[in-house]
Amino acid sequence: MKFTIQRDQFVQSVQHVSKAISSRTTIPVLTGIKIEASYDGVTLTGSDSDISIESFIPKEIDDQELVTIEQEGSIVLNAKFFAEIVKKLPEDTLEIMVTDQFLTRLTSGDSVFNLNGLDPAEYPRLPEIEEDNVFKMPKDLLKSLIRQTAFAVSTAETRPILTGIHWAIDDGILTCTATDSHRLAMRHAKVETNSEELAFSNVVIPGKSLSELSKIIDDTDELIDIIVTDNQILFKSTNLLFFSRLLDGNYPATKNMIPNHSKTSVKLESKYLLAAIERGLLLSREGKNNVVNVKTIENKELEITSVTPEVGKVTEKVHTLDYSGEELRISFNGKNLIDALKVIESTEITIDFTGAMSPFVMKPADRDHMLHLFSPVRTY
Amino acid sequence: MKFTIQRDQFVQSVQHVSKAISSRTTIPVLTGIKIEASYDGVTLTGSDSDISIESFIPKEIDDQELVTIEQEGSIVLNAKFFAEIVKKLPEDTLEIMVTDQFLTRLTSGDSVFNLNGLDPAEYPRLPEIEEDNVFKMPKDLLKSLIRQTAFAVSTAETRPILTGIHWAIDDGILTCTATDSHRLAMRHAKVETNSEELAFSNVVIPGKSLSELSKIIDDTDELIDIIVTDNQILFKSTNLLFFSRLLDGNYPATKNMIPNHSKTSVKLESKYLLAAIERGLLLSREGKNNVVNVKTIENKELEITSVTPEVGKVTEKVHTLDYSGEELRISFNGKNLIDALKVIESTEITIDFTGAMSPFVMKPADRDHMLHLFSPVRTY
């Protein structure tokens, strides 16, 4: 194998596929990036067996030559060292050449790295996926869907299915749901399907996979193809393939959890609520329970309090823009509400309470594409 | 105690004095910030018994009222919580009032914090320092002196004296020296003294103290007063006092360590040498020994190599701007050289070697105010 390549392009591809590589893998060849040179271009692959990422650098783009292939071939090089090295090379191009067995020489200007490679024949093959059921959405929408749900997945290993995000398509509408059983985030979006009959309901993608995907797709309205099989999902964009394993098991029936009535309804400015709860948590952080108490008071105001006996007490007042229904006293995990407020892009939100002991729902006031559900905390 | 104060001013003072406060102190009152209100203004104090910082906010500056004092008094409030709270308050002003015993109420708009304070009578007094021997220098020069020496102090507790920076004044010239016994950084500067006889030679200031000081003084040419006593040093700027304990013990006689001849002398562009050594260390990082090998080769070039058997080998060539003397092969800790190169502001540097087994000296090529000394590493 021997080729010369533009450094910037190569660095970006190396960074992309590195996102799939875990330093804790027990399979030595997976600590490396597979580099494969053919006369069409160079393909890089990284994988931790849950996620696999393939990035292709074509020989040329728009008549600009990116790669000069002198000899086809492949090699696996330690990802951690390699990613650092290519970033710091002195020239705009670099040459990679497998010299002897798996020994690889990387040259850029007056810098020469001789690296011990691994046998590419040992590298696992990527899954082969039939592209029957494809749907599409703009990349920036996909990034939003991930950002607005992934924060709510469970980080505990006790119920592995809750570490994933549930995706379902029905009637051209994708619904993404994440919950750790104390809070739930749900987001709808219209997607493009190649068949009106495309529908599925029990696809659970590891939250970590989607978070990594989100880091490597750019924030444009270019469409990305998505293909779901029994145990894999593939995201396919120009010169990039992103595979993730799906989680096994049944996702809880979250629809039944969402109350469809309200006893106390308030409308608030997001930023004032956010700031008040952030201050409310300043003293409670030490105790790590993050509980804040909310009480309706006169003049259509909410009083937010939090007490940490050794440290002190904080009291905040927040004006509501709208208020209807019963008086209320409720306690909940303020940190969970903050997480949700940070992904709601609307300036105003509504909260519907159904009593002190029941879950409550927060939504943007101006749109219906998103919903956040929170369990109250019993404080006595 | 009761006063109202401008939040921005107060936040900055709280941040300054917080730099002295350690969460690991065993003296409870030192986890707090002492706040003292008098009719002149508000004084904040933080201390970890090594460093003490006092920040004063006067009643008014340039006819702008900063503080409205209603009642004099003092209190000690937990620094960690307090610094977070004042940063996040909603309004431009805040009111602080000691209500009952040490209970303190902090109010800003619709936010009210009731905090448990500590008895200010338990707070230690700051040292009293006679201001006989004062010298002065611009703040930005002081910051440079610290930045260009503090990195070289020892972080090991085995020889405590080496965790400090040695300061000596002779003939109006301040010499700052730091060494961890493998490398040494020295910097001279002219200072203003109020007496021609001002001279001292065994003042050793903890590196940590100077690093903290550097964070709170601004990068201007305003003068700062410096007063040295037997066991304390005081830095005195407008509305700010910074005290540090001095280290006990004798600092090594570093002057004798510096070779005054040269067997091989090279002149190089700093940035190329820096980049080449950084790449040289990319593979050796795993081993943590950071050793690079330098060899003079033909065409007035240096060859820099580093080998990590499991990973590979890197070879770099660096052109010299000037080269004289014997051929040379030497090995040294590349990380130490990088640290020094990063604080040398000149684009060109000279290195004088005195053989493979002797310490060598690096200096800016255009100025004589700074010197870095490095021990070689034996590699066989």
UniProtKB/TrEMBL annotation, chains A, B:
<dbReference type="InterPro" id="IPR022634">
    <property type="entry name" value="DNA_polIII_beta_N"/>
</dbReference>
<keyword id="KW-0238">DNA-binding</keyword>
<dbReference type="InterPro" id="IPR046938">
    <property type="entry name" value="DNA_clamp_sf"/>
</dbReference>
<comment type="function">
    <text>Confers DNA tethering and processivity to DNA polymerases and other proteins. Acts as a clamp, forming a ring around DNA (a reaction catalyzed by the clamp-loading complex) which diffuses in an ATP-independent manner freely and bidirectionally along dsDNA. Initially characterized for its ability to contact the catalytic subunit of DNA polymerase III (Pol III), a complex, multichain enzyme responsible for most of the replicative synthesis in bacteria; Pol III exhibits 3'-5' exonuclease proofreading activity.</text>
</comment>
<keyword id="KW-0235">DNA replication</keyword>
<dbReference type="Pfam" id="PF02767">
    <property type="entry name" value="DNA_pol3_beta_2"/>
</dbReference>
<keyword id="KW-0239">DNA-directed DNA polymerase</keyword>
<dbReference type="GO" id="GO:0003887">
    <property type="term" value="F:DNA-directed DNA polymerase activity"/>
</dbReference>
<dbReference type="InterPro" id="IPR001001">
    <property type="entry name" value="DNA_polIII_beta"/>
</dbReference>
<feature type="domain" description="DNA polymerase III beta sliding clamp C-terminal">
    <location>
        <begin position="256"/>
        <end position="377"/>
    </location>
</feature>
<dbReference type="InterPro" id="IPR022635">
    <property type="entry name" value="DNA_polIII_beta_C"/>
</dbReference>
<comment type="similarity">
    <text>Belongs to the beta sliding clamp family.</text>
</comment>
<dbReference type="InterPro" id="IPR022637">
    <property type="entry name" value="DNA_polIII_beta_cen"/>
</dbReference>
<dbReference type="GO" id="GO:0006271">
    <property type="term" value="P:DNA strand elongation involved in DNA replication"/>
</dbReference>
<dbReference type="GO" id="GO:0003677">
    <property type="term" value="F:DNA binding"/>
</dbReference>
<keyword id="KW-0548">Nucleotidyltransferase</keyword>
<dbReference type="GO" id="GO:0009360">
    <property type="term" value="C:DNA polymerase III complex"/>
</dbReference>
<protein>
    <recommendedName>
        <fullName>Beta sliding clamp</fullName>
    </recommendedName>
</protein>
<comment type="subunit">
    <text>Forms a ring-shaped head-to-tail homodimer around DNA.</text>
</comment>
<feature type="domain" description="DNA polymerase III beta sliding clamp central">
    <location>
        <begin position="137"/>
        <end position="252"/>
    </location>
</feature>
<dbReference type="GO" id="GO:0005737">
    <property type="term" value="C:cytoplasm"/>
</dbReference>
<keyword id="KW-0808">Transferase</keyword>
<feature type="domain" description="DNA polymerase III beta sliding clamp N-terminal">
    <location>
        <begin position="1"/>
        <end position="127"/>
    </location>
</feature>
<keyword id="KW-0963">Cytoplasm</keyword>
<dbReference type="Pfam" id="PF02768">
    <property type="entry name" value="DNA_pol3_beta_3"/>
</dbReference>
<dbReference type="Pfam" id="PF00712">
    <property type="entry name" value="DNA_pol3_beta"/>
</dbReference>
<dbReference type="GO" id="GO:0008408">
    <property type="term" value="F:3'-5' exonuclease activity"/>
</dbReference>
